[in-house]
Amino acid sequence: MSYELLTATVIESRERKTRLAAICKRRVTLRRYRSLTEPYLDSCGIFKEAIIAILGTVAKQERLRISERVSAGLRHARLTGTRSGRPIGRPRLVFDRAKAVQLRLEGVSWRQIARRLGVSVASARRAYRAFGTCILDREQKQSPLAKAAQSL
Question: The pTM is what?
């Protein structure tokens, strides 16, 4: 009895075609290759060696091009001070930090301050900690947090 091995492979890119070409060179059992989407890619004719070599060369060039684009992108990102092409960090929220401090000193809750200024509660608290202590130091007053810490 004689058996033949039938292998069907769906190939989506030129690089994968190179892999198939390498399989064609290594395996004796795979005798023919014919593309369903590109009828000119056929290893059944007299030019099968040339087709395999050409596919390999085209895929190698494509890999080189991709590598060059990636390295150029990384170089550009390094020059502009980023890692991914986007600026590092989040954009700063623009709101009146002094107003957040003033509202808090008036006894307004964090949630109400955040709602009035259009920011999150965490942003309002950060603004108070950073900006509020500067204002209070200038006026020679202590913040409520500092008073609470001293009483402990």
Answer: 0.36
